[in-house]
Amino acid sequence: QKEVEQDPGPLSVPEGAIVSLNCTYSNSAFQYFMWYRQYSRKGPELLMYTYSSGNKEDGRFTAQVDKSSKYISLFIRDSQPSDSATYLCAMSGGTSYGKLTFGQGTILTVHP
Amino acid sequence: DVKVTQSSRYLVKRTGEKVFLECVQDMDHENMFWYRQDPGLGLRLIYFSYDVKMKEKGDIPEGYSVSREKKERFSLILESASTNQTSMYLCASSPRRGDIQYFGAGTRLSVL
Q: Partners of A6 in the beta sheet?
């Protein structure tokens, strides 16, 4: 079993939809959680960063962490075609401190 | 802005060739990383370094070596390239262990 599981999709939604991207993990020591966005043929860029449990909002993006369920989510409101990309969750903490453990990535397409 | 620069965007090499992938960061970060990214497998850590002249094996170090002679530069070396090393290679740096990683644009390597 992988330490971090992420549904690879692909996910296709109409413009304006609310998108929910999710990751589950097994290592209860993880305490730093990130979401990266990767456009085609580019490197990943940081989208959201959260520490421990709770919510964090940045514009149309909301990151949620539920440590009790070992579950993190990224919500995108009013999705736009420019949001079409691969979204990667990543986390670190405990004995893996110093390294990030990534999910497989979810391919999202937002069509006009 | 943090800048992580990878020397080549695309490389084509022959089986058995020695290949050097170079990465430079301009933010005085202590930590640097090399990943490869393959469809369905996500990002996999090859090697990382916490300081000059230090290196640590990641999850898939076989067939690779690294060099970090200066803080800003981290090189990935394929001693004898093989076709199964055809992949997207991503370099990253971070200011602290377990912290956000900043990625380069990637090098797409094809080994024929």
A: A23
